[in-house]
TrEMBL record, chains A, B:
InterPro entries: Glyas_Bleomycin-R_OHBP_Dase, MMCE/EMCE_epimerase, VOC_core
Source lineage: Bacteria, Bacillati, Bacillota, Bacilli, Bacillales
Keywords: Metal-binding
Protein name: VOC family protein
An example Gene Ontology biological process: L-methylmalonyl-CoA metabolic process
Residues covered by the VOC domain: 12-151
Top-level lineage group: Bacteria
GO MF assignments: metal ion binding; methylmalonyl-CoA epimerase activity
Keyword Magnesium: no
Length: 154, 154
């Protein structure tokens, strides 16, 4: 990681995440409005597999997810369940709308450490098939939450 | 415009717009964090040139803008002045954070008409050097405001 590449080694935004109350209704609205195929939503993994940690504690929280490709960017719709998570907290506090922008990084532990050194706290992390994610509280500095995504080499 | 292409003829998101109170501070935070050059901000044009209309009436409103290229996506920072605008209204109501996602379209008048037929109201429009924009109230359907951008053929 060089200084020229910044703290994350990338500045490519790959995803925007939107919180919604009803993933089927919003998914259909996107599909119809943009003339895209309506993707099937799916549940995130259970805690035994996802190892979901919210504010440092394991959480049963899960969410329904649906993805649209919109140019080189992925739009993610997120309908959380009622267990504690950044998704549920943000939806309850701010209502529907943008939750995060995501970047694909390498070296999750190191990057989290670097960001914590910048006063950006780890909010939630977990595993998914083929990789892992971390939501970082970058709101004060960057005015939006960042999600780090790390995909395993195939 | 075919049905397959949806209402706008495109589904490529080209920009995310963020409202901020202090464009210089946030711009510097982005530049340092991501290792990008700190761009110079500039004022949007005055109303005689921009023909800014907010809720159907001419508005003196202007904003300081700064742009970062983050992959194929442009991140736009927006610090509005205190005249009536969607920027000022949204910043006062919701604080700093994401204001819109933008798409580049062709045929501004036709696209606005199509969207109004879908119950999506025109909130604000204006001209800039080389093109024009329109903010559409798509929150109810799409959970985020859309901005249409039309650039003149060069």
């Amino acid at each position: 990681m060089t200084e020229e590449n910044g703290k994350l080694g990338t500045s490519t935004i790959t995803q925007i995440g939107l919180l919604v109350h009803d993933i089927e209704a919003t998914s259909q609205a996107y599909a119809e409005f943009f003339g895209m195929e309506n993707p099937e939503w799916f549940w995130t993994d259970t805690v035994d597999k996802a190892l979901t940690e919210y504010k440092g504690e394991l959480s049963q929280a899960r969410a329904k997810l649906a993805f649209f490709d919109m140019g080189s960017l992925q739009l993610e719709l997120i309908e959380p369940d009622h267990h504690p998570s950044t998704w549920r907290e943000h939806l309850d506090a701010h209502g529907e709308g943008v939750h995060h922008i995501a970047l694909i990084i390498e070296g999750m532990k190191e990057k989290i450490k670097v960001m914590e050194g910048q006063g950006m706290k780890l909010v939630q992390k977990g595993e998914y098939t083929g990789g892992r994610y971390a939501y970082m509280d970058t709101f004060q500095q960057l005015k939006v939450m960042l999600e780090l995504l790390e995909n395993d080499a195939q």
